[in-house]
Write a structure and sequence with these properties.
The protein has 408 residues and is an alpha/beta fold. It is built from 10 helices and 21 strands. The structure holds S-adenosylmethionine (SAM). Residues 209, 214, 217, 240-243, 245-246, 261-264, 267, 291-292, 312-314, 352 line the site of S-adenosylmethionine. Residues 198-362 form the S-adenosylmethionine-dependent methyltransferase domain.
């Protein structure tokens, strides 16, 4: 049996429950002696049908689970097997919903986008041959064993955990990289090959950033592949390339002069292989290992120009207090990248900082753009399998601008 504690809000009206969580100052906290060592528990919000995970130490103190779970509660408890079954049914629902987002059947996609999909702090990416799970907070740590059992009930594919990254560090949680399914443990093969955004992509689970690939860029990569042939693009500069999804998209459309910048040398080599796998081999790939700003400065001094430039950096604003510094960094990135662009070239600028809303990113970009007559070709966002809630919070995190410097 799992105990469910009652929790009261500070008089919140129902409208608040459209958000996937409640903050520390919105609830009356539970006494320590009722909680486990981690100060985490399943809770029911008094007077509502909302069930969530309570983490006393976190600023986000209650993170909601799917409403359907409420129906399985008896006397403030839920049977463990019932809880696991309810999660597996929820995972099946998510799968049915996500595949409606019109990507080809055998492509990688995000099955769970954490709180926005009712599974707090748990991301699950489906790479067809393997499922990769990531827990990013104390609430995720609580939920993880139940999710693993729930997944095992409905899916017999190998399951890998890649719980790494900045957010775990901020929550003081150790990194964890492991095979979860018993049959895979003996097997030291971490290589994954999958289809994604019309590309054949390869990566290694044990070296991966995030769960493996940045699946949130799917729609933006597809947009590039749709328009690229309408422009005269011979050369491409891919800033923060990681596994090379942008360059591989360009190469698959016939661009054969590719330059990549990343501070991760492993990723650069991976990117090169992915480019070769998606092109006709008649390509030159220059790999520039190190800091993006230093490399861009150096390329400017060499008077280099590129017909297509993509800048897809990591989130510059990890928290709200980093926003002013991050905005300056986006302006600087834009300034350098726009100076390196050929006339009538395409400039793609991305921000995955959830603390920088679209208007702030636009402002930073406009400050940075080199002189000229810049127009939007397209404004892209996260692929819809990275669920975007219809409420005014930061669940729309990915901004992806396609610009040209139009010569009139
Ligand atoms: C958001 S990911 C890029 C995703 C990639 N464009 C894709 O679509 O798969 C950011 C990348 O920036 C790299 N990076 C972070 N800081 C950097 C810096 N200062 N200079 C160069 N690369 C950096 C990371 O190693 C990572 O590969």
């Amino acid at each position: 049996m799992i105990q469910i504690l009652e929790i009261e809000t500070m008089g919140l009206k129902n409208n608040f429950f459209k958000s996937p969580w409640l903050f520390s100052n919105q609830i009356k906290h539970i006494n320590d002696n009722e909680l486990n060592d981690q100060k985490v528990s399943l809770v029911h919000i008094k007077g509502t049908k909302k069930i969530g995970i309570y983490c006393k130490k976190s600023l986000i103190s209650v993170r909601f689970l799917p409403d359907k779970i409420f129906n399985h509660i008896e006397n403030n408890t839920i049977k463990k097997e019932t809880f696991i079954k309810a999660i597996s049914e929820h995972l099946n629902t998510l799968k049915r919903e996500k595949i409606k987002f019109q990507f080809p059947k055998e492509e990688a996609f995000r099955l769970s986008h954490g709180d926005n999909d009712g599974l707090p702090a748990i991301a699950i990416d489906d790479y067809q041959s393997v499922l990769v799970i990531q827990s990013s907070s104390q609430a995720g740590e609580f939920l993880l064993p139940f999710i693993i059992d729930a997944l095992k009930l409905i899916d017999n594919r190998p399951l890998f955990e890649r719980s790494t990254g900045q957010i775990r560090k901020m929550e003081d949680l150790p990194e964890r990289t492991r095979w979860i399914t018993e049959s895979s443990k003996e097997n030291n093969n971490y290589e994954v090959n999958c289809n994604f955004a019309k590309l054949k992509m390869n990566f290694f689970l044990n070296k991966a950033q995030k769960t493996g690939l940045f699946l949130d860029q799917r729609k933006n990569l597809e947009y590039l592949s749709r328009i690229i042939k309408d422009y005269d693009i011979q050369s491409c500069l891919d800033i923060c390339s990681y596994a090379g999804a942008w360059s591989a998209t360009a190469a698959s459309s016939g661009v054969n002069d590719l330059t990549l910048i990343d501070q991760d040398s492993w990723a650069l080599n991976l990117a090169k292989n992915n480019i070769l796998a998606n092109s006709n081999n008649n390509v030159t790939v220059e790999m520039l290992h190190g800091d993006m700003f230093e490399h861009m400065q150096r390329l400017l001094k060499l008077e280099k120009k590129y017909d297509l430039i993509i800048a897809d950096p990591p989130a510059f604003a990890k928290t709200k207090k980093h926003v002013p510094e991050a905005k300056r960094a986006y302006s600087r990135m834009t300034k350098l990248a726009s100076k390196l662009l050929s006339d009538n070239g395409i400039l793609i600028l991305c921000s995955c900082s959830r603390h920088i809303p679209d208007h702030d990113f636009l402002e930073s970009v406009c400050v940075g753009l080199n002189e000229g007559n810049w127009v939007f070709l397209h404004k892209g966002e996260q692929s819809p399998c990275h669920t975007h809630l219809a409420n005014p919070d930061s669940s729309e995190y990915l901004k992806c601008y396609f610009l040209i410097n139009r010569k009139l």
